[in-house]
Structure formats: structure tokens, C-alpha cells
Design brief:
Blueprint lengths: L2 E7 L2 H13 L5 E6 L5 H12 L8 E5 L5 H9 L6 E5 L3 H10 L5 H14 L16
Parallel strand pairs: 1-2, 1-3, 3-4
Helix pairs in contact: 1-4, 2-3, 4-5
Length: about 140
């Protein structure tokens, strides 16, 4: 089973995983690390490396983060070279994470990354209330 690792600003990673698990059940080979206020990138990297050591990455590793260009994203970019099969997707949300959980055993890693990114985009929706019918008098 491919490993999934989520790193976000604050506690979002933990909460996103817990929310997704409410829908699809407890997940194995999944972990997270929060980037905390006033934390250095170096300290974040140490925490991530420590947590990644607990995962089985032999079938691939999917990094998920919240913000392209943010500290978690930049630290994960630096760690990519440490793994044979790894992908990174920014913009994590619950639909994206659910797709990762449900499809990680069926798709090759690159396809999984593409699919979760697309599902994340499709999971964003602006609701528009139906317009009331206007009666026209002639």
C-alpha cells in the first residue's frame, strides 16, 4: 500500500485526515506533521523525517500539503530526492484526501497524484441558489 503523508500549516493535516477517516474508515500507512507558529523549516524537516521513518514507502509515497510555495511545500520539495517513488500535490482538501485513500492501491503513483489533484479541483464548488421564477404579465 502506498504511503500518504500530509503536512500543513497548523493542525489542518490532522483534522483533514480525521475528517476523511470519518467517511472511509481508519487508514494505515498514513501520517502527518503540523507546521507550527514560529517553527523553523529545519525543525519541521527533522519532524517530517522522523515521522516518515514510521511509514512503509516501498510501494511509493504521496506527499500532500496545503499551499504551493509555503514552508511545508518547500521542505517536502527538499525531501523528494530521498525517495525512489514519490509525488507531491499541493492544495489538499477532503475530496482530494478521500480519493487518495480510496485509490492508492489501484493506481500507479503518478496516476494517483494526477487523479487526486483533479478530484481536489472538482471538490471546490460555489453554490448558486436557484433564481425564483418571475411571472410575466402580458
Amino acid at each position: 500500500m502506498k504511503a500518504i503523508f500530509v503536512c500543513t500549516h497548523g493542525n489542518a493535516a490532522k483534522e483533514l485526515i480525521q475528517s476523511a477517516e470519518m467517511i472511509c474508515g481508519k487508514q494505515e500507512n498514513t501520517s502527518f506533521v503540523p507546521f507550527e507558529v514560529n517553527e523553523s523549516a529545519e525543525n519541521l524537516q527533522i519532524k517530517i523525517v522522523s515521522e516518515l521513518a514510521k511509514l512503509d514507502v516501498s510501494k511509493g509515497l504521496l506527499f500532500l500539503t496545503d499551499l504551493k510555495g509555503g514552508t511545508p511545500f518547500n521542505v517536502l520539495i527538499r525531501l523528494l530526492e530521498n525517495f525512489n517513488e514519490v509525488e507531491l500535490v499541493a492544495g489538499v482538501n477532503i475530496p482530494l484526501l478521500l480519493e487518495a485513500f480510496l485509490s492508492r492501491e489501484m493506481l500507479p503513483l503518478k496516476e494517483l497524484a494526477n487523479q487526486v489533484a483533479e478530484t481536489g479541483r472538482l471538490g471546490i464548488y460555489e453554490y448558486a441558489a436557484p433564481l425564483e421564477e418571475i411571472e410575466e404579465d402580458f
